[in-house]
Design a protein that fits this description.
Order of helices and strands: EEEHEEHEHHHHEHEHEEHH
Strand content: 15-25%
CATH superfamily of the largest domain: P-loop containing nucleotide triphosphate hydrolases
CATH topology of the largest domain: Rossmann fold
Strand order of the largest sheet: 6-7-8-3-9-10
Number of domains: 2
Radius of gyration: 19 Å
Largest sheet: 6 strands, mixed
Helix content: 25-40%
Length: about 260
């Protein structure tokens, strides 16, 4: 049975004072899918995430969420409320608060910042927080100040904070940057776990990581989609070799992953 699209981007154009960072991109993400966006620096990968989450306005085009809601002109908070969460490259957490308090602040509810810390959470909310703590591997760090966590743990905590919003689509921008090998492996497994209930779009430069954890890859170049397919398929595409290596020879495509 084919899955339904959760996100459909159609003819997206982004213009920065005459420079078209995105040039007519079409991108479809299915429910429960992990999609990797790859490409050289300046290809437009992060800009696409910015457009989807509302941080950057598209000059033209449509973005359909669940095939019925065009989010291209909605505000960031409206998009979050619809079920799209975004994690940026650098972890954005409250360093002086505990891991538990960070998740509490991120809980999906109407709230004011400090009121949440003093509010009494119910048993259902506490259960959800403990589930997320276990999922991100920080159950034994719940009472630790976030600033004392390792870099990888901080990244997981912010992913956990996004999960507290109960998203249907999670956007991750270079989630393994600066991580150890073990942390990278754990992050890949975490993404797979998340995809059981939430579609995920990942911008990533580490081709070994992409090869290990991807099923579908979209290659971007100069604000356009160059090709899509499995990692094996895109590696064999001579256009991919040309983009990464400056050579238009298919036999060099395998070098993209090294």
């Amino acid at each position: 049975m084919s899955r339904q699209p959760i996100l459909s981007c159609r003819n997206i154009v982004v213009d920065f004072d005459g420079f078209k960072a995105i040039q007519g991109v079409d991108l479809t993400i299915e429910e429960g899918e992990i999609r990797f966006l790859i490409g050289p620096n300046g290809a437009g990968k992060t800009t696409m995430l910015d457009v989807i989450c509302g941080k950057t306005r598209a000059l033209s085009g449509q973005i359909w969420f669940h095939n019925r809601i065009d989010i291209v002109k909605k505000q960031e908070h409206e998009i979050v409320n619809l079920g799209i969460a975004r994690k940026f490259q650098a972890p954005s957490i409250f360093l002086n608060l505990t891991v538990f308090e960070n998740l509490e602040l991120a809980m999906k509810q109407n709230r004011h910042l400090w009121a949440v810390l003093r509010a009494r959470i119910d048993s259902g909310q506490r259960k959800r927080m403990m589930e997320v703590l276990a999922q991100i591997g920080l159950a034994d760090q719940a009472e630790r100040k976030a600033g004392l966590l390792s870099h990888g743990q901080k990244q997981w905590l912010e992913i956990g904070m996004q999960l507290m919003q109960e998203p249907k689509l999670l956007l991750l921008d270079e989630p393994i940057a600066g991580m150890t090998g073990t942390e990278r492996e754990r992050t890949g497994e975490l993404i797979r776990e998340i995809a059981q209930t939430c579609s995920v779009i990942v911008v990533e430069h580490d081709m070994d990581f992409v090869r290990t954890f991807s099923k579908q890859v979209t290659v971007m170049h100069e604000g356009k989609i160059l090709c899509e397919g499995t990692m094996e398929q895109v590696q064999r595409d001579p256009r991919v070799a040309e983009v990464y290596l400056g050579k238009g020879k298919a036999e060099h495509a395998e070098s993209v992953a090294t």
